[in-house]
């Protein structure tokens, strides 16, 4: 089930980036060639960017594709690397959990108050606010799954920088 969710998040992020590029090209053409800027592109582009970045960040935990600095762990044995890997996953999971916990009231407040972005398009602000708890919730799920996988069968993500020997 988590793999299907990962795949869905990746496709959504990919298409959001694609649509973002298309509407920015449309805006450039409208503004510079026809002298007719739009009022909707800036805000829609920001919304697509927020969702694609946070969704993409959540997806990158699937195979351990986030940047790793391994200068401290390169000379450690396998068990010590595994322990530090689990500690780092736990730290990420706790931080993402705190962000989920802290951001849910913002979404609820935006929904109940009818808060808008205050721009010319004046979109509701909850779609922007919702990206954070959803993406960080996915990060909690993915890092939890990676911890369970690591503890259960002594396997780590493909890019965890641990030697087999």
From TrEMBL:
Pfam family, one: DctQ
Organism of provenance: Notoacmeibacter marinus
Function text: Part of the tripartite ATP-independent periplasmic (TRAP) transport system.
Keywords: Cell inner membrane, Cell membrane, Membrane, Transmembrane, Transmembrane helix, Transport
Main localisation: membrane
Family: Belongs to the TRAP transporter small permease family.
Topology relative to the membrane: Multi-pass membrane protein
Subunit and interaction comment: The complex comprises the extracytoplasmic solute receptor protein and the two transmembrane proteins.
InterPro entries given in the database record: DctQ (IPR055348), TRAP_DctQ (IPR007387)
One Gene Ontology cellular component: plasma membrane
Domain Tripartite ATP-independent periplasmic transporters DctQ component: 22-150
Protein name: TRAP transporter small permease protein
Transmembrane segments: 12-32, 44-62, 83-104, 124-141
Compartment annotation: Cell inner membrane
GO molecular function: transmembrane transporter activity
